[in-house]
Amino acid sequence: MYRELIAAAVLVIVGFTAGWVTQDWRLGKKLETMKVEQAVAVQRAETKAREIEQRSTAEAVKLRDIKDAKINDISTKLQSAVSQLRKRPSIGEMSSSPAPKSEAQSCTGAGLYREHAEFLVREAARADEITADLAQCQAAYESIRK
């Protein structure tokens, strides 16, 4: 009787151990499959992120080149305008304000002294540069949002 009990206990222990080993083997296999799937998913995500980064970088370089060209154009126009303003009278050269020639001309700035006109031209150029910077930022933001 004890022999049968011991044999039954051994069979139960062997069966339990075999089940445990089999279950562990299955879980190990499943875990390995999940690790491989995760590694593949991470690799795909990295590749996609790098492609997006490269496109964004190329777009940013293109936008910066466009902005730099605009700023160079603004600088060229500014230098031209400042050189033309040297023909105007200076504040120290005249004692009274230059009088406008006609009512229609009074708001054109044609009667401004050299220093006043140069200040306004430089401020306009600075505003144009800021506008170009803003346009670049907005375009870069929109290209990333896509």
Give structural notes.
- The chain is rod-shaped.
- It has helices at 2-85, 114-145.
- It has a domain at 33-89 and 109-146.
- It has 2 helices and no strands.
- The chain has 146 residues and is mainly α.
Which terms would index this structure?
0% strand; mainly alpha; 146 residues; 2 helices; 79% helix
Summarize the structure.
The protein is mainly α. The protein has a domain at 33-89 and 109-146. 79% of the residues lie in helices and 0% in strands.
Secondary-structure map with pairings?
Blueprint: H1 2-85, H2 114-145
Helix pairs in contact: 1-2
Order of helices and strands: HH
Mean pLDDT: 86
SSE class: mainly alpha
Q: Any low-confidence stretches, pLDDT <50, length ≥5?
A: none
**Kindly, what is the distance between the CA atoms of the first and last residues, rounded to a whole number of angstroms?**
79 Å
Compute the CA-based radius of gyration: 40 Å
Coarse morphology: rod-shaped
